[in-house]
Structure formats: C-alpha cells, structure tokens
Automatic annotation (TrEMBL):
Any single GO CC term annotated in Swiss-Prot or TrEMBL for this entry: cytoplasm
Protein name as annotated: CobW/HypB/UreG nucleotide-binding domain-containing protein
Family annotation (Pfam families): cobW (PF02492)
InterPro entries xref list: CobW/HypB/UreG_nucleotide-bd, P-loop_NTPase, Zinc-reg_GTPase_activator
Organism superkingdom: Eukaryota
Region Disordered: start-end pairs: 1-39
Annotated organism of origin: Castanea mollissima (Chinese chestnut)
Length: 153
C-alpha cells in the first residue's frame, strides 16, 4: 500500500448532520482546530468522496427545500467523484436498486462502492485524482438540470 500520509496532507474533511448543517465540532462540542503541518491541513483538493447512508438517503435526496435553497444531500452526491453506499445490510436489494438509480440520475460519472459498517478499501478513498475542470462543469450542469426538473428554480 502506498504511503497514505501524503494523501491526508491534501485532504479536506467535512461532515454534515442529519439536518444538513455543517459539522465542524469535535468531541464535547468544541471546535476542531487544524494546525499548519498537521495531517488535516488542507493544501490541495484531490477529489470528493461522499458516504451515503443507504437506510436514510432517499428521505434526504427527495426532501423538498424552499426556493433558492439547495438540497445538500443532492449537492453532495452531484459533486462526488466517488460514492460509498454504507449500511447496505440495513436495506433490501430492491431499496438498494432504487437508491442506485436515483444516485446515478444525479451523478452518472461517480464510481460507486458498497460497504457495511463503513468498511471500504482505502485505495478507493485516497488518491482520487478527481479534479478536472471539464468534469466539474458537466457535474454542475447536471446538478442544475436536476434541480430545474424538480421545480426548484
């Protein structure tokens, strides 16, 4: 396996809560501090890996937002270079098929992996090499088209 520490130096770690609010808090509600030179220092973007909760994803993807408010779940899927479906053991095959179809409708470019208990090959998560301006334009246009189809804008 390659030296993964070099990949972490270029990583940005972000999470959102169930209600879509950005979560930058560490344990006990304290703000996380990222010091220069630490493993989490963002220096360059390599790609976007989105972890999808297979049990609850459809609820969030189908959530109707007020006009001019972006559905964060849709946005996270749309901009992902790679998508991991987690908790696949909690859904049936039919539910997983519907979710896969929905995700591919939003982002037909991203690679998808299935996972139980968050177990996924680190080579799928690190070294994505996903940022290509032309690809990003296609994804952005796809997202806008999807939102217009939903009647959002």
């Amino acid at each position: 396996m390659p030296d993964s520490s070099r990949f972490f130096n270029g990583g940005k770690f972000e999470s959102t809560t169930k209600d879509g609010q950005a979560n930058n808090e560490g344990e006990g509600g304290k703000k996380r501090e990222v010091k220069p030179g630490s493993l989490l220092t963002p220096s360059s973007a390599d790609g976007v890996v989105t972890l999808v909760d297979s049990k609850h994803a459809m609820q969030h993807l189908n959530e109707v937002k007020p006009r001019f408010v972006v559905n964060e779940a849709v946005e996270q899927v749309a901009y992902a270079n790679r998508i991991i479906f987690n908790k696949i053991d909690l859904v049936g095959e039919a539910e997983l098929e519907v979710l896969t179809k929905k995700i591919k409708h939003i982002n037909g470019i991203a690679q998808i992996k299935l996972a139980k208990f968050g177990s996924v090959d680190m080579d799928f998560v690190l070294g994505v090499g996903g940022y290509d301006l032309e690809s990003e334009k296609k994804i952005m246009l796809s997202t806008i088209f999807h939102e217009i189809q939903r009647g959002c804008c």
